[in-house]
Write a structure and sequence with these properties.
Rossmann fold, 404 residues, alpha/beta, eight-stranded mixed sheet, Dihydrodipicolinate Reductase, domain 2, 16 helices
Length: 404
Amino acid sequence: MKVLALGGSGDMGRHAVLTAIGFDFVDEVVVADRDADAATRLAKQCGAKARAAEVDARDVGALRALMSSSDVVLNTVGPFYRFGVPILETAIDAGCHYFDINDDWEPTLEMLERHGAAEAAGVTAVIGLGASPGISNLLAVRAMRGLDTAHEVLTGWSLDGLEEGDGEEPVLGGQPGAEPSAALVHWMHQCSGKIRVRRDGAFTDVRPVEEREIDYPGIGRAPTWSVGHPEALTLPLTFSQIQDATNLMTGPRALMDAVTEIRDAIDAKQLRVEEAAALLAGPMPDDTRKTLEAAAGPKASHALPPLFALAIGERGGKPHRCGALVQGAPPGGMGGVTGVPLALGLPLLHEGHIDRRGVFAPEAVIDPDRFFDALAPYCAAPGSSTAFGDASELVLVTDAPGPA
């Protein structure tokens, strides 16, 4: 299998490359990036199976040439509300299978509309196979299986420790004049304007960063805030029983208060999304950092898991809730927990576990058991998918071992 890693030397892409290069069935990984030096360094680190290619994602002709000589593309070029649709269309045109970490809801809908074209071209495309979306979608499926029926599904992720980055560069509070990451631009985009969620059986556009307290089984009550993400759309499209779906973020209230102020400034056109991201990427004042550290201290109560899902519905004719979380995660911060799941699409495709053609969200074509079993060996702590029911009932939903 010949793999094209588009954006392969970036924060997310390099973790996907380092994972993919270890698969025996992978013959070659092309580390393609606009930063030729970074791509060359990573390719040399990977050894004989890797080579570097300089490419600008906006150059459709160059992209198509690379994809035409590849079997699968792993796309980590963001923000996806700019690059997702055209890169997918190029892959379909080139007849190249496609996986990405698309975390924007707007292009998700547009990309799903390319299903017929991909199916006709014999192309499999799985969009949003990262942490959230990706792991979170499959956790949601696991949580739903703990119920007879689920009418509401919540997916979420924690902002605690976001300033730590992946050990190389901080996500928040970086260097003066540093270019903000695509992840930060995405985050500011999805924390402003309108986002689409599922409410009362219909998709509706609402303002993001709405606070909501949830009661998570086995943990307790905790505040969360809404954010734009694909899970709120793809899960109801895949499972028609879902009447309500929202993606949530959790974290220090001081940080969420700051995000709310930034949202208001963007909506008032006092800041552009890119400017807001640049502010977050810049040096963080000591007093601000101390406030955030105090708010997110190790003794914080009712802390929600870094990645989680919560299904609300009925079991045995009675109201019930079931939560699912991963107890271990790949090392490398945001890059590892996003890039490793992306690369795991390769063995699932190679072994025939993803055998449909078209454009899909992860939950439509990936079996959660198989995915979490594949993820477990890459986790810093033994990985598992665990479900908590009401009254602190603990239900293991995979056979992968994990800490108690």
